[in-house]
Amino acid sequence: MPPRWAFPDPRIDAVRGCAAVERGPLVLCAESTDQDGGDLDDLRVDTGARPRDAASGATVHGRFQPPVGDGAPYAPTEPAREGAEAQPVRLVPYHRWARRGPSTMRVWLPKD
């Protein structure tokens, strides 16, 4: 089965503005060990492009965009994000998380 986007009910505050990827009955996740040092908190995915099939999961187009600012927790305006080029982001089945060592993981990926 080809991978596909899944979107949450917008009433669920914790995942509003995010998307997940499913492949058949499997839920896929982004794992930090696959992202070449990119912080998953800074990942934004392009849901306009279809997820692509990969050997053990899928890939999606995404950008790692850390916020730019003075580091203060609150500001009168939303912090800008550095522009970053889109790159393939590897996703693996959720049940395989941390099999290659300790790592961070995200199922619900913020949209670009």
Question: What is the typical, i.e. mean, pLDDT?
Answer: 90
Count of domains:
1
N-to-C CA distance = 25 Å
Going by helix content, strand content and strand pairing, the class is mainly beta
What is the chain-wise order of helices and strands?
EEEEEEEEEEE
Indicate the percent of residues in helices. Answer: under 10%
Number of distinct helices? 0
Number of distinct beta strands:
11
Apparent shape = globular
Low-confidence blocks of residues: none
Question: Would you spell out the secondary-structure blueprint of this structure?
Answer:
Blueprint: E1 3-6, E2 18-23, E3 26-31, E4 43-45, E5 52-54, E6 57-64, E7 67-68, E8 80-81, E9 87-93, E10 105-106, E11 109-110
Antiparallel strand pairs: 1-2, 2-3, 2-11, 3-9, 3-10, 4-6, 5-6, 6-9, 7-8
Features:
112 residues, mainly beta, nine-stranded antiparallel beta sheet, two-stranded antiparallel ribbon, Beta-AFase-like_GH127_C
Describe the structure.
This protein is an all-beta fold and 112 residues long. The protein has one domain (3-68, 79-110). Helix content is 0%, strand content 40%. The strands form two sheets. Strands 1, 2, 3, 4, 5, 6, 9, 10 and 11 form a nine-stranded antiparallel beta sheet that branches. A two-stranded antiparallel sheet has the order 7-8. The chain is globular.
